[in-house]
Design a protein that fits this description.
6 helices, 3-stranded antiparallel sheet, M1 Pyruvate Kinase, Domain 3, single chain
């Protein structure tokens, strides 16, 4: 596999339903080498730091194989960066990965922490109010990553995979279980055993606490 594209977002204003919002989802490919830091790509704009970015979701990755599927589904070609990813990687299908798997790009090491959960900003970006539903049904969520080792990346760089060998859970199972509002305590513990993103972990711990509080 290799880096098809490195994408950087600038502040962009769009209409989202009845509101106007500023977002960094509109990303443009660059041919320059880019420094990946523990908090992502410095030049990349993040509008909502409550829901995006941070050390556990510093880099968002999407695969060319998933893009190819979407191009057939939508009947049009989609350019790299359309889904707001920082890195577009050839042959990558996000549903085939587990939490904790690593992507090695030169000196840069990324560890997968969570799937992307679609929101209305993505739907507005795609010009389709039903796109959140379509994205969920497609089960091609892309991969949020923490940066285990910083460094430079550039278009064309080789990408290697290192599989996580301890207790974990698949990215697609995390994606599916997000929509299950009646998860069992066992299911939640299975998620928490994996090196999952802190935002996801916090939400799961709150769910588990509610279950424990209901017990006599």
């Amino acid at each position: 596999m290799n880096l098809v594209s490195v994408n950087i977002g600038q502040a962009h204003t769009q209409q989202n339903g009845n509101k106007t919002e500023t977002t960094g989802i509109y990303k443009t490919p660059t041919n320059e080498s880019v420094q990946v830091t523990s908090l992502g790509i410095k030049e990349d704009f993040i509008a909502s730091k409550k829901h995006h970015g941070g050390p556990d979701q510093a880099i968002y990755v999407y695969g060319k194989a998933d893009y190819d599927w979407w191009s057939i589904e939508l009947g049009r070609e989609l350019a790299s960066g359309t889904f707001g990813e920082n890195l577009t990687i050839s042959e990558l299908e996000s549903a085939q990965f587990n939490i904790g798997d690593r992507l090695v790009i030169g000196k840069v090491i990324l560890e997968i922490t969570a799937p992307r959960i679609p929101c209305s900003t993505l739907a507005a970006r795609m010009g389709d109010p039903e796109f959140v539903k379509r994205y969920r049904q497609a089960e091609r969520p892309g991969l949020y990553c923490r940066v285990m080792q910083a460094g430079l990346v550039a278009k064309g760089d080789d990408v290697k995979i290192e599989r996580y060998e301890k207790d974990t859970i698949s990215v697609i199972q995390v994606f599916r279980d997000y929509y299950d509002k009646k998860k069992s305590a066992e299911t939640i513990r299975n998620h928490l055993n994996a090196p999952i993103a802190i935002r996801v972990r916090t939400a799961l711990e709150e769910e588990l606490q509610k279950i424990n509080n209901k017990r006599p």
